[in-house]
Write a structure and sequence with these properties.
CATH class of the largest domain: Alpha Beta
Number of helices: 8
Order of helices and strands: HHHHHEEHHHEEEEEE
Helix content: 40-55%
CATH superfamily of the largest domain: endopeptidase domain like (from Nostoc punctiforme)
Distance between the termini: 91 Å
CATH architecture of the largest domain: Alpha-Beta Complex
Radius of gyration: 24 Å
Largest sheet: 6 strands, antiparallel
Structural class: alpha+beta
Shape: elongated
CATH topology of the largest domain: endopeptidase fold (from Nostoc punctiforme)
């Protein structure tokens, strides 16, 4: 009597699928790296584009799947292209202050722009980006979503913030120090950029400032006056986000 052995057929994964799958691991790079740069953003854009194009080519036999993929891309990008509208500046300032507060305790990393590590200019930029994303999504306002994308793409230093940052900020006052500032001229969300352009702090209101402190190696909140904090005792420019005026 002959025993019939089951036939096992080895399925071979197409090379094109393997290559497409190898595009996914690089997406982890921006997730684990707190420091961002133009090169990293360009790399991320290239990988995402390659994944989408690869998916479209792999789905060439499934028309409905290809149409669904194209529809998904359009739904994701069209809101960034349609006209936006005016928004509630007070609500944006409030959202910005909340976003700044959400970074409390985040570790300090020079050049960092995420919750895994952040520096002084990264803090004030990322919080505004977060506020624009939340308000833009909540109010379905493409203008705010585009603003968030602009801030993400265009890195800057504290010095840049004190020099107009591509038309996004303006200087409203100067003072011998934060400790000497007249609180009456401040709005929540205002920035204090040191006159030497090496550090920036953000005003939360009620005499409270927040900063990504290189001395304490984390994001902290301080109440004026601060007789021992170096950044509160040197000349500053009061800078305001034009978007929040």
């Amino acid at each position: 009597m002959t025993l019939l052995q089951p036939e096992f057929r080895q399925t071979r994964v197409p090379t094109s699928v393997v290559l497409w799958l190898l595009l996914w691991p690089p997406l982890l790079v921006p997730l684990v790296t707190p420091v961002s740069s133009l090169k990293l953003r360009l790399f991320l854009l290239f990988i995402v584009t390659a994944i989408l194009v690869g998916a479209f080519l792999l789905l060439r036999r499934w028309v409905i799947a290809r149409i669904s993929l194209v529809a998904l891309v359009l739904v994701s990008t069209v809101p960034l292209l349609v006209p936006g509208r005016e928004f509630d500046r007070t609500a944006m300032r409030q959202a910005y202050v909340r976003a700044l507060s959400d970074y409390q305790g985040t570790r300090y990393v020079w050049g960092g722009e995420s919750r895994r590590g952040i520096d002084c200019s990264g803090l004030v930029r990322c919080a505004l980006m977060d506020a624009n994303l939340k308000q833009g999504t909540a109010t379905a306002n493409p203008r705010l979503l585009r603003e968030a994308l602009f801030i993400w793409w265009n890195d800057c230093s504290a010095r840049d913030l004190g020099s107009g940052y591509q038309g996004k900020t303006r200087v409203v006052a100067e003072a011998k120090s934060i400790n000497d500032l007249d609180g009456a001229i401040l709005q929540t969300g205002d920035l204090a950029v040191t006159a030497n352009g090496v550090h920036v702090l953000a005003y939360l209101g009620d005499g409270i400032w927040t900063e990504a402190s290189p001395e304490r190696m984390q994001v902290v909140a301080e109440t004026v006056p601060q007789p021992t904090n170096h950044w509160f005792r040197i000349p500053v420019k009061v800078v305001r986000w034009i978007e929040l005026e």
